[in-house]
Amino acid sequence: MREDPKRQGLLYAGTETGAWVSFDDGSHWQALQLNLPTTPVHDLIIHGDDLVVATHGRSFWVLDDISPLRQANPSVAGEEAHLFTSRIAIRARLGHTRRRRYAIGENPPDGAALYYYLKEEPKDPIKLELLDARGQVIRAFTSEEKKKDGGSEEWERDETEEHLPAKAGLNQFTWDLRHESPKKIPAAIYDEGEPSGPLVLPGTYQVRLTAGAKSVIAPLEVTMDPRVKTATEDLQKQFDLLLRMRDRQDEMNKAILAIRDLRGQLQALEKRLGSSAPAKPVVAAAADLGKKISAIEEELIQVNSKASEDELNYPTKLNSKLGYLQNAVDSADAKPTEAEVAVYAELDRQLEAQLAKWREVLRKDVPEL
């Protein structure tokens, strides 16, 4: 038996069949089995915010983050929605987290583990927002399940957008500590994977849960990986560059989607007007405008790429170049190199030239049509 070092009266016990927990100094007990198999638990230890148990015949098991147990009380069960205060999140780069095919322990996911309680399964979607020190929303999630609007079918076939669990009882969701990603382009191909938002800087943030008419807020502290000794000002320079790149990629991707939408409208217009003599000038103008905007699109994205190998067959365009550069800048906690800054400046210049052409189309060509 072990007492929690941070909450008096919170006890953990191991028996011949599993693990148990008491919130009232042992007067009442309830099972803490979760996915632990029925097995003798011969020892327990609280390591930081984790509960580690030693079994007889089933190796070691770890219950990651016992913060909700430390904060649980009878009043929580009576609330429509309750947001627990998360433990300190460590801003660390832990490498790949893909599931292995062989027997191996599974680490907790990277990021901040967020826990919330719902008295009943909500009828409408719930929302979880992350706010910075200024109160600005930097990331938002919802329980509404929907198909992803980006990514190649080669890699993400049948995947759904990341969404919040919203079942009655305790729910857990992990925020990867990143800002919002740029707008996704369906089936886009990138050299180094889809662009994402930058990692947040160490500091104090807020988590806001909205369920129905109720909204609750809890603080979240993010600290730096203690192994990283990069100066704060260098991390800030990296963050500023990555955020600018995210914003420009977002602007570029929205332009690409708008170009495709306009081209679809032009094609529908040509089909509707047909080949009658009175309609020929309009049809010809629509066709010319379609060619003009397609030329802009083809500088922004490689329209012929349908699979990752196509990057070898066709010239790399701006969306993939910016994505590759973003991955390079974001590959370590370090100040951007002079070369990275210079390459971004050149790519940004090229991007602005194409976006200026697109804005001119919207300002002049579309109204004239």
Describe this structure in words.
The protein is of the alpha+beta class and 369 residues long. The chain has three domains: 1-65, no CATH class; 73-96 and 109-228, Sandwich (Immunoglobulin-like); 234-368. It is 33% helix and 22% strand. The strands form four sheets. Strands 9-15-14-11-12 form a five-stranded mixed sheet, with no helix packed on it. A four-stranded antiparallel sheet has the order 1-2-3-4, with no helix packed on it. Strands 5-6-7 form a three-stranded antiparallel sheet, with no helix packed on it. Strand 2 (11-14) and strand 3 (19-22) form a beta hairpin. The mean pLDDT is 91.
Main beta-sheet annotation? 5 strands, mixed
The CATH architecture assignment of the largest domain turns out to be Sandwich
SSE pattern, N- to C-terminal: EEEEEEEHHEEEEEHEEEHHHH
What is the SS-derived class?
A: alpha+beta
CATH superfamily of the largest domain: Macroglobulin (MG2) domain
Unreliable residue stretches: none
The helicity comes to 25-40%
Shape: elongated
Instruction: Give a count of the beta strands, DSSP E runs of length 2 or more.
Output: 15
Overall mean pLDDT stands at 91
Question: If helices are DSSP runs of H or I spanning 4 or more residues, what is the number of helices?
Answer: 7
DSSP strand content: 15-25%
Summarize it.
With 369 residues, the protein is an alpha+beta fold. It has helices spanning 67-71, 74-78, 153-156, 232-273, 280-300, 318-329, 338-368, and strands at residues 2-3, 11-14, 19-22, 30-31, 41-47, 50-55, 60-63, 81-83, 89-91, 112-118, 127-131, 137-142, 169-175, 203-211, 214-224.
